[in-house]
Amino acid sequence: MGKRVILIVMDSFGIGDAPDAERFGDQGSNTMRSCYFSKEFRAGNLRSLGLFNIDGVDYDDGCSEPVGAYARLKEASAGKDTTIGHWEIAGLISKEPLPTFPEGFPEELLDEVKRLTGRGILCNRPYSGTKVINDYGDEHVRTGDLIVYTSADSVFQIAAHEDVVPLDELYEICRKCRNILKGKYGVGRVIARPFIGSDGNYTRTGNRHDFSLVPPDKTMLDHITDAGMETLAVGKIYDIFAGTGITEHVYTTGNPDGIEKTLEYMDRDFEGILFVNLVDYDMLYGHRRDIDGYARAVAYFDDKLPQIMGKMRDDDVLMITADHGCDPAFTKTTDHTRECVPFLMYGRNVRPGNLGIRDTFADIAATVLDYLGIHGGNAGGSLLRLRPRE
Length: 390
Fold this sequence. Notes:
- This protein has 390 residues and is of the alpha/beta class.
- The chain has helices spanning 31-36, 44-49, 82-89, 107-117, 129-143, 167-180, 220-226, 237-240, 255-266, 280-286, 291-310, 363-372, and strands at 4-10, 69-73, 121-126, 146-150, 155-161, 189-198, 201-204, 209-212, 230-234, 248-250, 272-278, 316-321, 341-346, 353-358.
- Helix 4 crosses helix 6, helix 9 packs parallel to helix 11 (291-310) and helix 10 (280-286) runs antiparallel to helix 11 (291-310).
- The longest helix is centred in the C-terminal third of the chain and has 20 residues, at 291-310.
- The two termini are 20 Å apart.
């Protein structure tokens, strides 16, 4: 049996503002602390791995004898979005932030979108995804014009009613947009946001699809596949990396489905990495500033951890981390927050203990490659601490 790494990203589960949070307007944000004081919060299994022993966590005494290794990771990249966060986890540090459009997209770009799609455009502003379909849905249904909007993230989002713009057409429109959204317009993701309903009462469906910018260099995923090992992706991992370096993937409908898919993959024989994104923390609770909902989602994952750990083989290593923050109690914005993230590592061969405060998420990629015996050229330093052989 080969070595396996199970890497789970709790999307947006930050553990406190980063040293440069003030530059992003996020000083004082702390996603985990905000959830911690909710009556819905429960994290006994994460506690046993060392979550509350991490440097800087000062509102809980932690575990007297944690069974995992743990660290506080700072983000070295110039951003706080999903794409840049995951790329850094995979070993790429982005010196420049991906472009954002707080005033909407320029007319020259929208004219090209209209030419390529044959459809008009509505909105073109930063907007809540659930609000925009109800504010513009009736006009969209009447005209067939696309609802184009953005956020504080580097995204170009297209909302369309499934009965007005069939899914295949919407996806093809997004592919065309992805092809022209490059260079100064090179947003991290073009996102298809289909919805259903009528007469100002619309709801998004589960048929969202992301069309991501291709990473600018090789990631740990490429190094793993180059070594002849497998890279299995659960959730939106495939989209974040535009499919590069991924040997097999499966989409999910939310955290419970993502956890079930993870358990199913762990029953398989493979050598390499199982890379999982659990998106509900960010999408359903962080952005919507739902503290109790976020806390419940953490508790659900914590309850499932024994099943995940129970399926681990002798040479497996489990890693748990996040890609940025999205503090549900932060009132200055409803967008991501610039925070440090947790890193937890557990396995039969992993020596427990404090790995300190690290300067980049890329240490995760270095650790994965180190454990798999692969020499990659990415940023970061390995955190691998193995027990002495008996």
